[in-house]
Amino acid sequence: MTDASVPQNVAPPPAEVPDVDLYHAHSWITKYVFSQDAKVIAIQYAGTAITVGILALVLSWVIRLQLAFPGAIPFIDANVYYQSVTMHGMIMVVYMLTAIFLGGFGNYLIPLMVGARDMVFPYVNMLSYWVYLIATLVLVSSYFFPGGPTGAGWTLYPPQSILTGTPGHEYGIILMLVSLILFIVGFTMGGLNYVVTVLQARTRGMTLMRMPLTVWGIFAAAVMALLAFPGLFVACLMLLLDRTLGTSFFMPSLVELGERKDYVGGSPILFQHLFWFFGHPEVYIVALPAFGIVSDLISVHARKNIFGYKMMVWAIIAIGVLSMVVWGHHMYISGMDPWFGFFFAVTTLAIAVPTALKVYNWVLTLWHADIHFTTPMLFALGFLVTFVNGGITGLYLGNVIVDVPLSATLFVVAHFHMVMGIAPVLVIFGAIYHWYPKITGRMMDERLGKIHFWITFLGAYAIFFPMHYLGVLGMPRRFYEMGETAFVPASAATLNIVITVIALAVGFAQSIFFYNLFKSLKYGAPAGGNPWRAASLEWQTPETPPGHGNWGQQLPVVYRWPYAYSVPGAPEDYLPQNAPPMRGEHSP
Amino acid sequence: MTAEPVTTEHVTTELNLRSSLHGMVADWSSDQRSFKSASWGKAMMWIFLVSDTFVFSCFLISYMTVRMSTTVEWPHPSEIFALEIGGKKIPLILIAIMTFDLITSSGTMAMAVNFAYARERRKAAILMLVTAFFGAAFVGMQAFEWTKLIHEGVRPWGNPFGAAQFGSSFFMITGFHGFHVSIGVIFLLIVARAVWRGDYDVGRRGFFTSRRGRYEIVEIMGLYWHFVDLVWVFIFAFFYLW
User: Fold this and answer.
1) Taking CA atoms, what residue in B is nearest to A123?
2) What ipTM was reported for this prediction?
């Protein structure tokens, strides 16, 4: 770098790696279908994830209709109900949230935010999407097999998940397990790309401590996924062998319908350990990218640097490490040595410390800030509220003695929907409103966006907040119908009807978002390169939407962190990461 | 009295320790790359191997768990894995040969890496082929062992010698490891062909990735191969010696 305007002492070092040799697509097919461009792969990932997400949303209506009007809708029998519960949970957690955060936002934002031309291995990245797509198709195809999809619950606990009483025990469970194995294979290919791109393909001047928190969140989540998915992989493979070859990894000796099965001596608890060794980190695989994105949304739209950036980074790492050793809190009622319960309760509650630290830092970022109530900001604020709410009920459930009576009630359903359902989904919406101008070059409609926000936020609250109350009453989750149950008052049934009506309305209201999404493609106001006046690197691309290779002729050079907002003396109140240093500037 | 003089040895160790720690901190707080000496491919393979370690750990821990959870007695490994040669039963003889074979292949692999960096294409390619041959021989011996056990009535769902989980874990874990070796053999053949032809000298583009490869791919291949060997040592210890 021999830029004369740059003082020598701040000039970044020379490039360590020669600029990459990009693959240039020649046909429409290699450009948009079998594309090796991370940005196209991101949109494919997000599109597929949102499509199956809509299916899962419809399935949630089936669940809600049954709970509100038991037996009133002819096609919802017990089998359909359990299949809907299972597919809704599995699709939302794995195929929607994980895929959209890592495959969607990860692919789009990591190369742009760290100043790379693309992911490090574009071909493997492309394979990752196609394997994910096949996994999704295998899962959905279980609707077309005799017996339908599995109704084992998203946790797929053996022995019941592979016994004949469970719907979908013929093909559904096999397809579910095969699909999960495929998903993990596909994810591993993508995950390696995200991790190596962040570690090894940053541009000059981009230190780890100058990366936007979005990248930190996605990076930490990808690392965790690479360590946690092996647990699910092994569990799925062994369950598949139990189901197809009749091995007894998880199956003890048991009698079914008066007939003794051939299984002998397996350990069902082993499955739970393997499943939750994946299952708990999975919560943070979804939450950490959301934490990162929300930090950036708040900082940009409040025109203030994020409060305590270093603390935020270390909190992400601490949460990631701790979340690998808390899985046992999902198994308090499976029976465990009290000392294990003690250990898992302590580690679980310890996560509250870095998490609370993040919440305080978000609030302190907003303190005395120049808050712009744009749609992305509203969604970010909505996230703060729902996340704190869901986090606090997490403190209840993390304690063994409080968890035992509340386990398997609607309180748990309310808790995890608040903390890892609604909260991350609000972030996804906020992020789409925020980055849509970069992806398409046009703004989304703000008025429709605000209507969408208020309906979604208030509606989601109205759905899940009363559910805590139902749970405290003792109303169990996953029950097809309650029948005559003395401890459930009649008012609870009324409340269930109210929740269902709101759930249907909020679900339909999402069409406002999709209308906005597609309408703005053509009719949205032209956005320009940087409509939010954001400092991070993805807004500084020479073209909008960014072209193949992202940066034109020359890779950008980074001189500061991505949070240089309201800088005194700066020409426009902010300094992009790649603007040459100002005289007397003290940005990190 | 003066303090004991500090020997030069002490000083160097301390300095090395300090400079390596400082070096690590410096690398991780720098821009561009966190692992300064690792290329993208090498970093990716290392991280993949960490993930794969978790897969094999989960397998082995699950195996230990079912071995303890089952109520039926576990078959005796030195009898099950014995081979009758010349009318005498020799315990673990096949496994000894298999282990020796795989560890030898690690040696030839390391030599191949050395020759690849020295640009001695023919030698590198031949050593890779030898490695692939040892790998294929390993898989072949595994197939022989599987056949023998199947003939004796061992099945994934049960066996005449004891706990059903013996067959389940054995076929699953050695199968998964054998799958790793087979994949390794296929890639060794592909890379050996490219090295033999001199693809990495002329900058020929990969068929799928359309990227130019480098001789470093031999080392990356080697990382994978040594890992598969190392995993075998654990499987060997936990399965055959326990």
Assistant:
1) B209
2) 0.93
